[in-house]
Structures are given as structure tokens and as C-alpha cells.
Amino acid sequence: MRYVYYFGGGKADGQGSQKELLGGKGANLAEMVNLALPVPPGFTITTEVCSHFYKNNRSYPSDLKAEVEKALTRLETEMGAKFGDSKKPLLVSVRSGAPASMPGMMDTVLNLGLNDQTVQSLASGSGSERFAWDCYRRFVQMYGDVVLGLKPEKQEEDPFEVILSAKKKARNAKQDTELEAQDLKDLVIQFKEEIKRRTGKTFPQDPTEQLWGAIGAVFGSWENDRAKAYRRLNDIPNHWGTAVNVQSMVFGNLGDDCATGVAFTRDPSTGERRIFGEYLINAQGEDVVAGIRTPGPLSTAEKKNGSLPSLEEVMPEVYKQFVEVANKLEQHYRDMQDIEFTVQHRKLFLLQTRNGKRTARAAVKTAVDMVGEKIIDRPTAVQRVKPEQLEQLLHPTVDPLAKKNVIAKGLPASPGAAVGKVVFSADDAQDWVQRGEKVILVRAETSPEDIQGMHVSQGILTSRGGMTSHAAVVARGMGKCCVSGCDEIYINYASREFTTKSGIVIREGDVLTLDGSMGEVMKGAVPMVQPSLSGDFATFMEWVDEIRRIKVRTNADTPNDSVVARKFGAEGIGLCRTEHMFFEETRISAMREMILADTVEERRAALAKLLPMQREDFKGIFEAMHPYPVTIRLLDPPLHEFLPHTDAELEQLSLASGRPVSKLRKRRDELHEANPMLGFRGCRLAILYPEIAEMQTRAVLEAVCQLTKEKNRTIVPEIMIPLVAEVTELSIIKERIIEVARQVNREYKTKVKFLVGTMIELPRAALTAAEIAKEAEFFSFGTNDLTQMTFGLSRDDAGRFLPQYVSQHLFAKDPFMVLDQKGVGRLIEIAVHDGRQVRGDLKVGICGEHGGEPSSVKFCHRQGFDYVSCSPYRVPVARLAAAQAVLEEKQR
Ligand code: PEP
Ligand code: MG
After folding, report:
1. What is the pLDDT of residue 693?
2. Phi, psi at residue 171, to the nearest 5°?
3. pLDDT tens track for 203-224
4. Helix 181-199 crosses helix 129-146 at what angle (to 10 degrees)?
5. Which ligand is nearest to the CA of 786?
6. d(C-alpha 282, C-alpha 252), whole Å
7. CA 484 to centroid of ligand 2, rounded, Å
8. Residue 833 CA, ligand 2 centroid: distance in Å
9. Rounded distance, CA 61 to CA 234, Å?
């Protein structure tokens, strides 16, 4: 087996298609070398070495050493430089690169090969002592941190930064660049001492030892906490591992004819076609991303008031070459690229290219535009957008007409809007959110450690860093609103507050609104508006609908929800939970009367009050959904949910109903259950209190008759019985429904059509589907309950420990969010198969939460479902997932 792949000298051992083996970065470096683009030569150590490393107690395959030595010799020859050489020392970077991009999550070491001797040669070779010592200073710092494990204690500032700040203060310097060679020499000594003092380890002088140390650290960083968290959030499997790239250094910090930058071939926020990016003169790559200095724009067109000169102005030739290279890369990869580059003495080098992360808006626009530009076809375009990302486009933005109190402005780093209470650390963000608060995370800058805190925040505000800073890139990937580089605020972490330029003080817990499309920071909660669903979005969704086969319905209980869902493309209602209609102020008392009734007559009298209200509800919903189908579920929840909980409320009810409090309390206690979700609910209610089901059926059918009469509508309602375990339950209730239909037909002198079906929510129902299908005209999988019952996990209480199960990988995913295809899915498979054996035209759908989750929708497609049903905002997500399921099927 081969472990090391060389790239350079106009040819690479590897290819762009070998992402799994070489990692994304390694594969793309190989590809760029093969495309004859200017890439500093180097070699990639494969992800297989990473797997070996973890399987064998952090040791390497026996052949690796020889292969690395061989590649190193080849690199030395190509560069005309040697590791540790006193005249021309070879310097390399050692960087991670996993098969899927994990920006900033793993470790990197730059300037490796420097020591007390080679720093002198670098100084004489480059003609700049300051430059050489700056490189050495950075290297010792990175090596100390990444390889030798010098980490700040919790709550402590990075010890290297403390030393650096003290030096700057002593020298009266604002920026690192103002320090002189002698200062940097002092820093190197101090850094080495600090490493020794804190870790007991000596900074190694031997470049080969340095190299192996760095390789081990980069492989080791695959398992650091932030990398693990990122993988969990982005569905990247743990067993993939990272590759390690060793690449000869080029320098963007050799003087004012040098630069470093990051660029996207299209605007990653809007998708607009233009080179978009930032650069810094006389700097190393990390400086742009870390947001320590505020960078300038690449193109002159991007310049805003007060921004630095563009690269186009400063180095027009280099800019021109860069644009050509960027176009070539985009054409080659047929996707928007995110490129890192360095300019060394006006010579352009590419350090990395990858498919750029983008907002949902940019993803849709880029996909639609690239079809127009004939770069990709429609099916490819449909696969370019992540279904879960689409939801971003449906959420509101700040109302342009609203009165707003803008207290500061920063960069529009990631679009959308967010309202929340201010917190100043990622840990606080997590704590507050756990307490049920919505928060805005405010930081000077963010780092990969903050990823969990960013994930739970509504939006992110940073006082430093550009459009490609960590905060900006990560927020865009998450679809979170972000304002970065807002240097008009001064943050005081100690007192948990920030002050704006004009002196306004915002404290922890104060409410802020962020507008990530404008870069505005507003005091208080500003009103929002609904997004537009026309233009590129509409075009894109048309292509989606051309491809998909299964229908997408919505879960909705009101005409208003139905209207919203139709705007998002819903093709019917898969679940109307009728109980939601009984909680309204005017109805709850009739509902309670019904529950408290001592006799059937009393119960019927109370139900008679509810009948007209329920009928009007159904008329409204049928109208809003016409001509699409509507599934109405008979009452499901345990009755105690409708009774008052406190004594004060009981007293009020006593007054209203004329029943003594003691009697009410007795009834409440009778209805109390230890496990209500396993108790007197679902079809069991209709078995014991058939009057309820009769009233609801009557309301449905009368609504149909009246609409037929008034508006000449043809409506075939689907009446759905919840929580059936035994077919007899269904047949008894079905008979009642048919009897009510007979009565209604007589009264209205008509013949209403309707379907009677059931939810499959219990394992027994799934396993006896063949019997149930004899009675049921449709199945709708209630996967919330089916998951609960299959796992023996309470929907109400599992939150206490389920997150730990997921974080410890006991469960790959929370099964209430992502359908468990192995277990719950197996029950579904059996039920669909057995049900359709008995009734060939059995209609099958899903209405649990999973109906809007992409991987679950794809599963339903593969099982031959007729439709999925989900909450209104997830309808477009489900439509896209359903189309992608068709395309994935073809690729198999
Ligand atoms: C289900 O159980 O999946 C379902 C849709 O019903 P509910 O969530 O109302 O119990
Ligand atoms: Mg249910």
C-alpha cells in the first residue's frame, strides 16, 4: 500500500477524484498541479495513515517513514533547498485536510524547518532580518500550541498572546508589524522559555523531529473536541480521518510586494457572479482568516467607503492573473470555488481550492445561474442545494419600513436577521439557551472552540474580522445571521457589556436585533417581514417538482397555516390535529363540560355546542386547501390535558359550570394518569366515548355538504383514526362513522364521499398491517409515537438523557428528529408491504416530524410512499429531498 503522494514539477501522483484517500485539500492540490496552475510543491500523507494511527495506539505503518523521506528528498531537489541547510533551508507547512472540508477545526503548523541556525539563513536569503525572526516567532508559537500542547488554562488568556501584548506595550506598538527584529528575537527566547516552563518540553531544533511532531499533532487534531463537534453537526463520519499535507512555504509577508488572500469565484452571500474576496499586504495566510487585521477587497468594484485599496489597484497584473486562474478553476470544478492564495514578490501561488460554502440564497442563485451559463444541467443544480438549507430562505428578514435604532454598523457577513439577548461567551450562549432564552453571541472574534455556542445562538456579532473571518464563514455555513468586523463597538468581557462609538452601553441580557444582510446592529426587537418566494427560488423549485415523484403535504390545523403552507408548495394536508381547535378561549369551556359530563346525554349536549364551531373550522380548512386532499384526525390526546391544573382555575371552572370544586377535583384525579401517552388516548377515546367521534365526523361531513351546496366544491375528506393497535378498534369506529354518514346523507339528501384510514403509531399496528388494511383505506405513519413506542423512549422526558446518548454516539442521531431506518424503518417497511398485499391501492403517507427531515423523506420515497406531510416551513425542504431521492436512485 502506498501512503505518500507527491505533487509538483508539473505533475502529481494523485488526482482530484481521490478525495477519500488524499482529503479534499490534497486531492485539489494534486488536481491544480495537473492543471499546470502555480502551486508550491509538496506531498500528501493519506487518510489511511490516520485510520492506522488511531487503530494502532497512535503509531504509523512501518513503510511510512521511508516514503516520507523519499518524498522529502524529491521536494528538496525540486526546491533546491534542504531541511536544516545553513545556506538554503527548506521550510514547509503541515496542514490537515479531511475528505469533507472542516474549516479551521484541525491544526496547522507553518514555517516548519526554522531553528536557531536556519533563521539566520532565512534572514540573509530574504534580505530581511525582521521577516526571518517574525517567521520563527510564529513557528515557535504555533509549534508550542499545536505540537507541544501549551494551552491556556480555562479563563486564562493565551500565554503567548500575553507575552506578545506585553512586548507591544513596552515598545509602544499597536500592531505586530511595528515590532522590530530585536523584539522578535526576544519573543522567540521568551516563547521557548514559556514552553519549557509550562510543558517541561524543549522546543526541538532538528527539522526532521519538528516534522514528525507536526504530522502527529495534525493527525491527533482529528479527535479534538471542536473537530468532533463539527463532524456531529455536519454528518461527517468519524472513521474517515484526515490526510496531512506537507507543502513548501511561500511567503506573503516578505515585504510590500507580497500579499495573502482568500477569494470566492461568486459572492457566497448572494451568489452574484463576481470575484469576491479579501487580501492583506505583507501578511501570512492565517492573518486574513483570524481577523487580526482588517483586510482590503480584491476588486475595485467591491470597495466601500473607507476600505483599503483593492488588490486590483495595488497589483493589477497579479489581479488579472488571479481572475483567469479563478475562472479556470470554476470551469474545471463546475462549482463555485473558495481559493486561498499567496503573492510572493508579485508572483501568484495557489495554496488551496475547494467548493465554497454558501448561504441558501447563494446556493440557489449559483445553481440556477450555472444552468443558464450551461456549466451544469438541471438535475445537477437540484443536487447542489442542501434541503435543510432551504429553510433559511423562508424565514423573515428585518422589515425595511420598521423604525429601527441602529447603534452600530459592521460587515454584512451572513444574511437574515436575528433577535436575542446579548451574551459574551460561547459557554454562556449554551447555558442561556438551555434555560430557554434566545441569544445573540457577541465576541471580539470567534474561534473554532466557539462552534457549539454559535450553533445555538440566533445570530453572531464580532467586533473584529472581515467577510472571510472564522465567524463569517462558519455562520454562513450554518445559515445564521452574522455581523462581523463591527469595530464601532468596544467589548468589555470583564463587565459583560459593550459600548458603541456614541457611548451607548449594551449589557448582558439586553435585547438586540442583527441584520446580517446590511451589517446593522439595532437596539431592541425590530419587526420582521416574510421573504419573497419568487425569482430564482421559484425557478429552482419548479425544477425540483419536475423531478420528484412523491407528494408533499403539510400538517396544519387552521386555514391560516394552510395558506402559508400552500405558498410553500403544499399539496394537501396530511394531518389536521383537531384537538388544537379545542384549546381556544371560547371552546375550552364546552370541551370541559363534555369531559365532566356524568351521562351520555350531558356529554352530547356539550358536544352539540362544539359541533358548529368545529364544522366552521373544517369549512375554512377545506376552502383554504381546495382542491387538495385533507386528512382530519379524530381527537387524540388524553383528556386531562384539557382540564385546569391549578386550584384557582378549578374554582373558576366551578363558578362557570355550577359544579362543586370537590367534584371537579375528583374528576381531575380520576383522569390523572402516570403515563398518559400510553393511556386513555387515541382511538381508545372514541371506543369509550363514541359521541366524540360522531360529533367530529358529523362536523367534517356537514362541512363538505355545505361547501358542495354553497360553492359547488368536490371534497373527499380523509378521516383518520389515531393510535390503533387492534383492527377491531378500527372496525368499530369505522362503523360509527358510516352510520353518521348515513344520517348526514339523509339530512342533506346527498351522498358524501370520504375515506377512513388509520395512523400507524404502534408496533403492533405495523406488525398486523395486513389485518388493519382490510378496514383502512389509507395508512399514515405517526412516526413520533411509533419512534416513542419502538424505542421505549418517552417523547416528553427523553430530553433529559437523549442528548448524551447522541453525543456519546450511542445513537447516531436523535431518533425523534431523524427517522431510525433500521428499527422504526423496518416496522414501516413491513407495514407498507403487508398492507399493500391486502389492498393494492392503499394510500401511504407519513405525518410525524420526520416528514420534513431530508434523510427520512428520502427513505419514504424508497418505500414507495404516496406522500410525506410536514410543518409548513419544511414543505420546500421535503420537496427538494424528494427530488434528490429520485436522482440518487438513478445514480445507484
Ligand atoms: C405522530 O405520532 O407521529 C403524530 C403525528 O401524532 P402526534 O404527534 O400528534 O402524536
Ligand atoms: Mg401520534
Report:
1. 97
2. -95, 5
3. 999 999 999 999 999 999 999 9
4. 20
5. 1
6. 5
7. 44
8. 21
9. 30
